[in-house]
C-alpha cells in the first residue's frame, strides 16, 4: 500500500477510535476516571506543539516496539493486551478504567491486524491520531 494512503487511513482510524474512546470516557460512571486523567494531563501544562511532539514520539517509538518487534513473535491480540496493560488501563482494582481498557484493547488489536495488511505507517499514524485527540480532549475537559 502506498505510504500516503497508509497515513491517511491511519489518521482516519485513529481519530475515529479516539473519538469513540472519548465518548466512553464521557459516560457518567467514568466521570471520576476521566477527571483523574484530565487533571494529570492538565498539570503537565502541555502546549499544542508538545502534544504533537509527544504523539509523534509515541506513535513511532511504541509502534516500532509493539508492531515491529513484539507482534513479530506474538499475535496482534496478545500484543494489544500487553500494550494496554502496560499503559495502566487494565486494572482489576478499578473496573471502570478496565472497561475503557477493554475498548482500547479492541482498538489496538484491530490496529495490529490492519498493520499486517496495510503497513507500519498506518499503525504509526493511527497511534499518533489517538494520542493527539485524547490529549487535546483531556486539556479541554473542564
List the helices and strands and how they pair.
Elements (H helix, E strand, L loop, with lengths): L2 H23 L5 H13 L4 H26 L2 H11 L8 H24 L1 H20 L3
Helix pairs in contact: 1-5, 1-6, 2-6, 3-4, 3-6, 4-5, 5-6
Structural summary, described in words:
The mean pLDDT is 94. The chain contains six helices and no strands. Helices cover 82% and strands 0% of the residues. The chain has helices spanning 3-25, 31-43, 48-73, 76-86, 95-118, 120-139. The N and C termini lie far apart (41 Å). It has one domain. The chain has 142 residues and is an all-alpha fold.
Provide a short characterization of the protein structure.
With 142 residues, the chain is mainly α.
